[in-house]
Every structure is written in structure tokens, then in C-alpha cells.
Amino acid sequence: MRTLIHLAAIAFTLLTTVAHAQVSNPDNLIAPPPPPIQFRGKHLVTKSTDFQWLWQYTAPAPDGNEGALIQDSNFRLMLRNNLTAPQSFWRDGKLPLPDVARLYFSMIAGPVHGIDNRYVTFSSCVPHLCYDQGLIWVDTAPQHPTVVFAATEWTTQGRSYADPDANFNLWLFASHPLDPDHIPPSLIAAIADWNAIAPQHIQTALIIDPDGTPHKVDPTSLGATPSKSTPTPAAKK
């Protein structure tokens, strides 16, 4: 009996040695495929909700590098994966929302701002139609990953878009439903700063849920300057 136990112990030792040799030999290592998802703390992070790649484009401060950002393939993926709502304000809704956002950010480069080590914002406008302006605000926190595309459109008010009293509509499209009564303060501040750089009077402000549900809100609740006149139909693109 002792002999059998001794032989079994020797066999186990040999097997363990061989196994260790196999595992420690780099030629025998096969890397597992990368996991499709990753966890940061308690929160599930996927390629469509991991926005940490944006931070590289906030440098050099204070203006960052929006030209390189909008050329990054991750930018197109971010728009495609997070802007899923239908749109009706541009060319009668014939273009998907991500394509409209890319039009607003196709050529003109502006500052890329990082705020509180959490939010990234940048703005631009449609080439040759620069009165139609766009803002992208991103919450990069794994707990609340959110992309918001804000766009203004000049309305048929009977005034030139260059007229200080011309009116515009403001559309907000978010990757997650926004509570009109609890808009993130950082988003309100970003809209206010954006609106102050190129002042536009907003006659109608709409928040659009990912499923297309619209919510009409007071422009001032979003930090925008309200219109001085009665709303009129929007211009067709």
C-alpha cells in the first residue's frame, strides 16, 4: 500500500512538473481572445460607452485638437452607436442622425474642452451654412456614459440669419433619455457658453429621446437665449 501511495506521489509530481513546464514555455502559450466587455468598478463598459479616447484631443490646452478628433474613426463610431433617434429637421428626415451630426462636424474645427475630469465638449457648424451650429457634449464617466448632440437651425422668420434678431430652433439628441426637469448642470453650462460665443435667439427648444419622443422645453432652462418673437415654421434643408 505504501508503495502504491509512493508511486502515485511520484506520478503527480512528474505531471505537475510537465504541466508547469508547458505553461511557462512562451512557445506553448495561446493568448485568449480579448473580452468583448470590461468592467470598471461595478459598471459595465463597452466600446460604445467607453469615451476615454476623447481626452487625448483636449490637449494642448486650452484649445485641444478638434481637427484630429473628427478624423478619428472612433468619432464616427461614437455618433453611429449613440445617436439612434430619428430626425426631421434636416432634409425632411432623409438622412440618419449620425450623418447629420457629421455634417455639422465635417470641416470647421473649434476648441475641445475637458471639464472637471469628466465632461468633454466641442462645437462646430455646417460648412457654407455656418448659421446652423452644432455642439457635442459627452459625459465620460462609466456610471453615466452619455453623448448629446445639440444643433441649431435658422428658421423662416423673414430675417437674414445675420440679423441680430433672427430666430433659431434648438434640437437636443441624447444617447439616453434626458429628464427635462433635471438637465445635467454641465450640459446647461456648455450650451450657455456655446450660445454666448455666437449668440442666437432660440424660439423653440426640443429634447428628443432615443426613440424619437420629443419634449418641448423653455430655451432658458437649457442655458440658451430665448426668441423675441412668435415661433414660425422651420426652414427646410
Please explain how this structure is put together.
Helices cover 24% and strands 25% of the residues. By secondary structure, it is of the alpha+beta class. It has 2 domains: 1-31; 35-226, no CATH class. The strands form 2 sheets. Strands 3, 4, 5, 6, 7, 8, 9 and 10 form an 8-stranded mixed β-sheet that branches. It has a two-stranded antiparallel ribbon with strand order 1-2. The radius of gyration is 26 Å and the shape is globular. The termini are far apart.
Q: The biggest beta sheet, please? A: 8 strands, mixed
Strand tally:
10
- Catalogue the unreliable spans: 1-36, 230-237
Rg result = 26 Å
Task: Indicate the percent of residues in helices.
Answer: 10-25%
In summary, what is this structure?
The chain is an alpha+beta fold. It folds into two domains: 1-31; 35-226, no CATH class. The protein has helices spanning 2-24, 66-69, 73-82, 97-104, 185-197; strands at residues 38-40, 43-45, 112-115, 119-126, 129-139, 146-154, 167-174, 201-208, 214-217, 225-226.
Annotate the secondary structure layout.
Layout: H1 2-24, E1 38-40, E2 43-45, H2 66-69, H3 73-82, H4 97-104, E3 112-115, E4 119-126, E5 129-139, E6 146-154, E7 167-174, H5 185-197, E8 201-208, E9 214-217, E10 225-226
Parallel strand pairs: 7-8, 8-10
Antiparallel strand pairs: 1-2, 3-4, 4-5, 5-6, 6-7, 8-9
Helix pairs in contact: 3-4
